[in-house]
């Protein structure tokens, strides 16, 4: 074998080892980033007293199924969506005194673990309460309000409020009070982490918000 061939072979071996090394590093990084629902469950149920992080369940209920109308049901919510909201709480785009404080205390992995745990939980059903407005809510949710440029909620969140993973959250069964509060926050600019929701909420009256929120609560 001449010197040129030997040199070429050495180059191939070095290149192969380099590629292999990069692949192993990427695999290791992926494995390290994989969320752990079990760890998320522990943090959700018990918190971390040493860091002053309370149990998420104290506000959001067992399995994320809050019984408090102003606190959202998050059991069964999409993993990517929950993680994004926890990150957003640490930015000016979604500043909320309680959640911002706790979200900033969580590491990125802990946010992912909690999100992964909640995605494994089964959401509880809700119910519409106002028979006088449920039809208006249904019309807005399913058909929007054409003359005001309000798109149908179902076009993003699905006919049954099941949402679209990694894009739009599940809404079915959500507390009326919480849904109205978020629509009002989008409208006022207090919550600024969705261009679409900010634009749409500005075109809704308070009564329209309440009607659609009540309809959403009864979706299954």
Number of self-contained structural domains: 3
Structural class: mainly alpha
Low-confidence residue ranges: 22-31
**How is the CATH topology of the largest domain named?**
Cytochrome Bc1 Complex, Chain D, domain 2
**Any idea what the radius of gyration is?**
23 Å
What coarse outline follows from CA principal-axis ratios?
A: globular
How many strands? 0
Task: Describe the structure in your own words.
The protein is an all-alpha fold. The chain has three domains: 1-33; 37-119, Cytochrome c-like domain (Cytochrome Bc1 Complex, Chain D, domain 2, Orthogonal Bundle), CATH 1.10.760.10; 134-217, Cytochrome Bc1 Complex, Chain D, domain 2 (Orthogonal Bundle), CATH 1.10.760.10. The chain contains eleven helices and no strands. The chain has helices spanning 3-33, 37-46, 57-60, 79-88, 97-105, 108-119, 134-143, 154-157, 176-188, 195-201, 206-217. α4 runs antiparallel to α6 (108-119) and α9 (176-188) packs antiparallel against α11.
